[in-house]
Write a structure and sequence with these properties.
The relative contact order is 0.12. Helix 1 (3-14) packs antiparallel against helix 5 (68-75) and helix 4 (54-63) crosses helix 5. This protein has six helices and two strands, in the order H-H-H-H-H-E-E-H. By secondary structure, it is mainly alpha-helical. The protein has helices at residues 3-14, 18-26, 32-47, 54-63, 68-75, 118-129, and strands spanning 97-101, 108-112.
């Protein structure tokens, strides 16, 4: 199922409109321009003319009470991996970390845009090389 189809089905299942979803995802905008832009984004997603980033897919999934994996795979985006053992997870601010779907099934491209010390970089490189 494509992302527009999955999104339309989820909206229909909950009896929501594109405007309802935009308000639930981005909040009630007092600025009319921003509110219209958010509704238009949802409209583009429904038409298939734009694909949302994984952060937006996550917010949409939460607003629709859907599993992120379900909508992310329909959007061709990789859902963020959330390890059960929080102590094993590296704490990187969301705005510095991005997971992008790779051409190979079951693979993702990890992009980290952050200045870190050399020792940490080498540890990450070792983990990824294993």
């Amino acid at each position: 199922m494509s992302f527009p189809e999955a999104l339309r089905a989820a909206l229909d299942e909950r009896g929501m409109s594109a405007s309802d979803l935009a308000r639930k995802v981005w909040g009630n905008e007092t600025n009319r321009h921003n509110a219209a832009r958010n509704r238009q984004l949802v409209s583009h997603y429904l038409q298939g003319t734009m694909r949302p980033q994984i952060g937006t897919v996550t917010r949409i999934a939460r607003a629709l009470d859907k599993p992120v994996d379900e909508l992310a795979s329909a959007a061709g985006r990789a859902a963020p991996h959330r390890p059960e053992d929080k102590s094993a997870a590296m704490r990187v601010p969301d705005n510095h970390l991005r997971l992008v779907a790779a051409p190979e099934a079951g693979k993702v491209r990890l992009q980290v845009n952050r200045v870190i010390d050399q020792r940490t970089a080498l540890k990450i490189f070792d983990m990824l090389s294993a």
